[in-house]
Amino acid sequence: MQTTWKGTISFGLVSIPVHLYSATQEHDVPLHQVHAKDGGRVRMKRYCEREETEIPYAEIAKGYESPDGRTVTLTDEDLADLPLPSKKVIDVLAFVEEREIDPLMFSKAYYVGVADKAAAKPYALLRDALVESGRIAVTKIALRTRESPAVLRVHEGTLVLQTCIWPDEVRPAAGIAPEEDVEVRPQELKMARSLMDTLSEDFDLSQLHDDYQEALQQVVSARLEGVELPHEEEAGEAPDNVIDLMEALRSSLRQAKGGRTGAAAEPEPEPAPAKKATAAKKTASAKKTAAAKRTTTAKKATTRKSTAPRKAS
């Protein structure tokens, strides 16, 4: 694995010489630009406007144009000599709970490896301390032409450095979510939770694959072989608006279950409160009527007994 960066982790007075290795790689079908008319390759040429000629890559530097139109040229040596403490040192600033870092800030991940055998013990010390504390380390690092905050955490027994964007680079979300008050009924929330549980059964993130790249490769292969391009069957039109949210949730739940065994049972619909009250009134009324009938019957029996003629002794 190719080394991306060489430097030192500074953990208090402890120094750990380390190398960084890119932890991720993106897979795609390599495409380049061609002339649509004849398929000729289109290449970008480095063209100097002042000399009106193409120049080699070795003569290219970075430049900055000021608001008044002046341009300064910055060479690779200028950028390499920037007075940055984080240029070769990953300085651990603090240890925080992972939930304190907004996931929107996370960027690229790098595996952290030891640079020599002497770094093994302090490396293991920092790694085990992070695991035991359940925290992540907040640091800063300068990679290429950019300094950025970063975090150190543990993944499968290996330290991982994940660069972040600066907090003020996260755009505010104000005005995007619905601003009006929306009432969500408890039964709707219960149904949504049931749907979430059903969809999550036996889910394995490692089984996900890139359908787009597979479909693109099929199209490329068909073009190369001169056969008809594959076509996906047209899906049915989605409804323009959800009229009955509860019915949509029930239908989604039935579809998600799809005959699964052990799936969460569909929540029973809430009985209408008005019907409950009516039923209670009817029951109370019936009980009162029955009690009144028993009282009337008892009174009649007592009256008959008191008015009946007594037998002669």
TrEMBL record:
<comment type="subunit">
    <text>Homodimer. Interacts with LigD.</text>
</comment>
<dbReference type="InterPro" id="IPR006164">
    <property type="entry name" value="DNA_bd_Ku70/Ku80"/>
</dbReference>
<dbReference type="InterPro" id="IPR016194">
    <property type="entry name" value="SPOC-like_C_dom_sf"/>
</dbReference>
<keyword id="KW-0238">DNA-binding</keyword>
<dbReference type="GO" id="GO:0006303">
    <property type="term" value="P:double-strand break repair via nonhomologous end joining"/>
</dbReference>
<feature type="region of interest" description="Disordered">
    <location>
        <begin position="255"/>
        <end position="313"/>
    </location>
</feature>
<feature type="domain" description="Ku">
    <location>
        <begin position="52"/>
        <end position="181"/>
    </location>
</feature>
<dbReference type="GO" id="GO:0006310">
    <property type="term" value="P:DNA recombination"/>
</dbReference>
<keyword id="KW-0233">DNA recombination</keyword>
<keyword id="KW-0234">DNA repair</keyword>
<dbReference type="GO" id="GO:0003690">
    <property type="term" value="F:double-stranded DNA binding"/>
</dbReference>
<protein>
    <recommendedName>
        <fullName>Non-homologous end joining protein Ku</fullName>
    </recommendedName>
</protein>
<dbReference type="InterPro" id="IPR009187">
    <property type="entry name" value="Prok_Ku"/>
</dbReference>
<comment type="function">
    <text>With LigD forms a non-homologous end joining (NHEJ) DNA repair enzyme, which repairs dsDNA breaks with reduced fidelity. Binds linear dsDNA with 5'- and 3'- overhangs but not closed circular dsDNA nor ssDNA. Recruits and stimulates the ligase activity of LigD.</text>
</comment>
<keyword id="KW-0227">DNA damage</keyword>
<comment type="similarity">
    <text>Belongs to the prokaryotic Ku family.</text>
</comment>
<feature type="compositionally biased region" description="Low complexity">
    <location>
        <begin position="274"/>
        <end position="313"/>
    </location>
</feature>
<dbReference type="Pfam" id="PF02735">
    <property type="entry name" value="Ku"/>
</dbReference>
